[in-house]
Amino acid sequence: MSAMIETMFAAKSLLPLGPRDAPSGIVKSAARPPWRILRDGLEGDSQGDLRNHGGPEKALHHYPRDHYDAWAAEEPELVEALSAPPAFGENISTIGVTESEVCVGDVFSFGSALLQVSQGRQPCWKLNARFARPNMARRVQTSGRTGWYYRVLREGVAAPGDRLARIERPLPDWPLSRLNELLYLRTLDFDALAQMAELRELAPSWRELAARRLAKGAVEDWSTRLTGA
Prior knowledge:
This protein is an alpha+beta fold. It is built from seven helices and 14 strands. The protein has one domain (2-171): PK beta-barrel domain-like (M1 Pyruvate Kinase, Domain 3, Beta Barrel), CATH 2.40.33.20. The model has no long low-confidence stretch (mean pLDDT 94).
């Protein structure tokens, strides 16, 4: 995979979101280049909930623009909200690559920075508020059109026109689409969960999630994450 990046997006300030006016950085705009990519993310970006967003394992969020047409086709009322990225709060938007083509652990060069795919996105209720749809987070989850996160292996600087180029693939059998299916559809596939729990390149929180399912023989409660209740 190789994609030229023209723009990166950052939340320069936190804005109130949803009925509780929770501070959020989901509303982003074009970041001024050159872009300095640090261990915790793009310089100048902000997150309102540092427990569940941002940090070394979620330093940058990538959402394929390929999915925008699918969302608009399913619900034409979303066309205006989807008129341009970053509708899903992404830092990086590309055409031509989705969760089926990206594997956990894939390493990418971008400018002088080195990035590694750490996990998929677990949709939360803030997508409901963002799109004024009470079930948007669940729809993103079920569809598998989640996007993904990078950890930063080497800090660096990138600029418009730099390519996001894959240089290493340690886990070719673990595309993000497989992980999404395991987490949200085939939720108690114990053999696959046991393998997932041992993936060193996967974010620790996701390895622990797989281990908990194995230990309990049950799926965790998604209601708080998906609805904010």
